[in-house]
Amino acid sequence: MSATSERREAATELARVEERCAELCELAGAAGAEQAEAYGQRVRLRSARFEKGELALGKATDGTAIGLRVFDAGRLGFAHTNQTDGEALERTARDAAALAALTPPDEANGLCEPEGEPAGEPAGEPAPPDLWRADTAALDVEAALEHGARFVQRMTASDPRVRIDEATLTVGRSHTALANGLGLRRAESDAWISFGALGMAVEGNEVGGFHSVHDFVRDLGELDQALERCADELTGVALANLGAGAAESYRGPVLLAPSAFAALVVSPIVSASGAIAVQRGRSALAGRLGERFASERLTIHDDPSDPELAGATGFDREGQPVARRALVAEGRLEALMYNGYAARVDGVATTGNAAGGPRSVPGLGAHGVCVAPGDGGDEEQMLTALGRGLWVRRFSGTVDPISGDFSGVAKGACWVEGGRVTRSVRETLVAGNAFELASSILALGSHSERCYGSARLPMALIDSVSVTAG
Amino acid sequence: MTDAPDPTDLLQEALDEAGDGFVELRSHRKRTRGVAVEKGRVDSARTSEHTGVGVRVLVGGAWGFASTDRLEARAVREAIDDARRVARASRPARAQADLPPVELARGRFDAEGLEETLERPIDEALDLALGLERQAREASGSIQSATCAYSEVYEEKGIVTSDGARAWTRLVRPELYVEAVAARDGELQRAYEAVGATGGWECLFRRHSGPELAERAAKNAVDLLDADYPAGGRRKVLLSPSLVGLLTHEAIGHTVEADFVRAGSCAAGKLGERVASELVTLCDSGQSELIDGAGGTIAVDDEGVAAGRCVIIEQGKLVSYLHDRASAAHFETAPTGNARAWEYGDAPLIRMRNTYIEPGQSTLEELIANTEDGLLLDGCAGGQADANGEFMFGTREAYPIRQGKLGPLMRGANISGVAFDVLQTVDGVGDSFRWDLGAGHCGKGQPAKVDAGGPWLSCEVIVGGRQT
């Protein structure tokens, strides 16, 4: 299919989703709803799945989902369907309106008023990201199979001990639209490639711990480099996991890879920055707006404008403008994240953080978490700064987003002596509290890395972590 | 909803014109109703419908998959064509020999509790959630916030294959979650209770009523404010049935999934070997063995194979892996009915269903009395397992045991170990049994509804507590 006809087809598909959303809003009115908002998505996926290093399944799926939120005198109802014929849409409208008749009223329920074009707030921020990439969108299942095979080949050819349990590569494109009864209309098209793998190294009778990688690109020109980076990371860590020995138990500094830093410290802070968590009394950061609660080294932004991150968008789940905003600046809680509901509770403007897809009521969340790099230098310098202790490359455990307590296994972990890796370790658990450790950041690496395609973070050296060796 | 037409008629019509070669058609209608309440406010009252047909074909040794959201014979035939195009593009893939003949399911399979749950108006669920949230929130002045969420998923599947399966299955799965957050001097502690079942509300509330669940969540949240952290290290522990369920699922179940075995998991090559204490017999079943209502119950898997009981470890010896039709062909054995797909757009993978350790002879009191120095652990908080058998899972409550006596509540900690090594340390198996992970999902590229359980179990693990 030529690029021109691809573009034409994409425009037609987007227009169809917009029409269905508008139609559903009207049907909701006919069903008795006072206010209605429809959010629809048409998604096309072409993927290749590999097992044991070999192609297992090629896959082609297309589907539509539309979610309808209605309000009736402050009462909420929601219905979702993946069927787009008239009868299904009528049933969806009736279901949402019937639910709204049952629920108790809440004065903060209601639609967001149209507030101009998306983005551009605050002044000086970049224009909304253009997420459509015609060359990426034009890829079909043959391309997914070819790129996926190349990804797997790079991992398995690197060393005969490397085994790939599973790898997938998906080419996707989506058309998203929102319409509400106040006349707000939003539409956006996106095209991307996501891929990931899970593998380990096997030598004789020894099976090393597995490592997983995942990334996401929109620009086809970036794909090769991203595939190579992920493949090399997986094979490097999987091979290093062979011959793992024991660590030592202690309480003190550990070096966290970006993904482990995200899981243990950054995610609980971002979660606690949600206004609903604060309003409902389940945020450790309640009442601390403007206060310093973390190390001055910590600055966190929510950035929906970075097209290299999966969560980039021009509008939020309620169709409101989005913009890059600081949540934490030099250790100080700078702002809370709001959706329309939370904003009305506090009597402020939404920050465009309504989150979620068409299958559920809009929630609240960040679009793209970005932690500013520090001055700790590169990996070698961070290892030197650690001196002696544990380097955690992946965390497998539980983090309570409310209390901040975490406990779990350090995966792909290494023991460091004199600033150098001496051995990989197994059966080693780490524990602590995210909000306490936020004050114990000793250094952040000088480069932020894209993490799972959805965030940017540097390495972090953090004090006062409990390490228990098995 | 309960008098819906047989979906296999449409699939058979499409299949009859599909030509030669293996074709597997699976229609899947999923309808969800749910409510969520926090601090007196209804955050969600929703219905959801997700319906379509997944098509898998085998062409020249290569698989192809496509799907359609239109329940029309013509759309299904187009999806068959798409799947064949994908399969042809996939060659040369790993050559899959033709699937060997196997007895495939035919007929209608309705799970327990279907009518009762579907006919219950959503008002009752809303009233239940509002009442339980209020009860938990008002249980103590220390409670800052409470949440209650109820959902029920109705699933209807039609499975028709070119080699003889023609099954129509229907089931319903209700779930309830109650959470309380307690606060003191700026510290927050959270506790929750979650239950899920395949069946009606009788199954859902078989052990605790709704008000009992709300009371337990609120009490635990408040008690955790005064609780200390356990010390870390290798410890003797008594694992509750929910944690035994997690152990069987995370630590053993994943390593014996045949696709993972083929990739080189630690269970590879161990069939027939002793991998656990003789006290351990571990199974996975599509049926709700021992007690009704297990959350992962299915009558027929998504390849049309009857989902029976599979003994994985028999008195300490590894005797079987979990298989779909393709892996069973590779290992020259029979499929175990473990092929499952989350939604119509997902291809079936090897997944667990209800995984458990069979009960033994000891009472809980005897297990406690026989423990000189250890921890009693309860309440699961998720977990993962590694290819090398190393597992991790979270616990929510811990009680010290000193010289056979139980001490006060401590905060939960994550525990870890190497699966088969830990099972070798089992020195006591309780005589009671319960399913206790019915509100859980397993993740493996796509979710799967599973359950797990067992008796109380005495063994040795690494506890990731705090260091001083």
CATH superfamily of the largest domain in chain A: PmbA/TldD superfamily
Percentage of β-strand residues of chain A? 35-45%
Low-confidence blocks of residues of chain A: 116-125
- Count of individual beta strands of chain B: 25
Structure description:
The complex is a heterodimer of chains A (470) and B (468). Chain A is an alpha+beta fold and 470 residues long. Helix content of chain A is 26%, strand content 35%. In chain A, strands 8, 15, 16, 17, 18, 19, 20, 21 and 24 form a nine-stranded mixed β-sheet that branches. In chain A, strands 1, 2, 3, 4, 5, 6 and 7 form a seven-stranded antiparallel β-sheet that branches. In chain A, a hairpin with a 2-residue loop joins β10 and β11. Chain A is globular. The N and C termini of chain A lie far apart (58 Å). With 468 residues, chain B is an alpha+beta fold. Chain B folds into two domains: 219 residues, PmbA/TldD fold (2-Layer Sandwich), CATH 3.30.2290.10; 231 residues, no CATH class. Chain B contains eleven helices and 25 strands. In chain B, α1 packs across α2 and α4 packs parallel to α6. The radius of gyration of chain B is 23 Å and the shape is globular. Chains A and B meet through β1, β2, β3, α2 and α4 of A and β2, β3, α2, α4 and β7 of B.
